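Problem: given the chain below (309 residues), write out its structure.
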Amino acid sequence: MIRLLILAIVLVAGVIGVGLLADFRMGEAGELTSLAEGSGTYLIVGTDSRENLPEDVEGNFGDFEGARADVIMLMQARGDYRQLLSIPRDLKVEIPDNGTNKVNAAYAFGGPDLLVQTVSQETGIDINHYIEVDFASFAGIVDSVGGIELDLEYPARDAKSGLDLEAGRQTVNGSDALAYARSRSYEELIDGEWVSSGGGDIDRTGRQREVLLQLISKATSPSGLIRSPGVLAEVTGQMKVDSTVSPLTLFQTALGFRVAGTTQAVSLPVVNSNEGGVAYVVREEPAATDVINAFASGESLETAAESVE
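Solution.
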């Protein structure tokens, strides 16, 4: 859900300027001792917290207390590349002082600090900054730009996420965009029958990317820029960041993103694994190591990812 969200933030931030950004306030994720000194590499986390959900979203994503890390992504601007590396939430890892588990369990066990420590340990990548966004903020961001446009070949539904859309080009609001991006049981009405897409998290990631690209397009259009202060207020007001992230930090990141000419967004190559009745994904080698090394050195992620094909 968050794959290109921060790209939208920094691009718009670069247009408006640091002076305006200084008026916005961001939530605090606390002092993260696991962060490395320096700047440039962000851990972007999308949580499935049920707190403060809009009324039209409540009830579609289960009912439990607390929050879990639903989307985990590394982001940086290095040379000619804007790079985003997704870490599958079911990746099997060693969580410091908590044994073997899925990577998103680190957030549940120890919050942002333990998640940063776990991802850095697993990848060997130094993480300098942390940004977190939840369900409610994502839906609000889409609504703040007047909705986004989707073009569906077939009617689509997902009873679990509340998705219910007709075929064709249409403007959807925040709750529908969220249901579309988070659907895990996506079905299409083809020749009079509801058919499961069967694509699992791969298809889901594609829908998330589609929604966020549409959000970027809308927010950075001439009419969107007029409303951009409202977009930034919506985003920054509901983000949680570590103490190193400030409006100036985001502006500096924006400059790096504007200089870079190519956006590369890939997922860590993985394969399914079932161990002791627990379904994980595990790194597919050597492709996973190639992608991690490419990110660490600022080289092409797409070239590295080709080794899995």
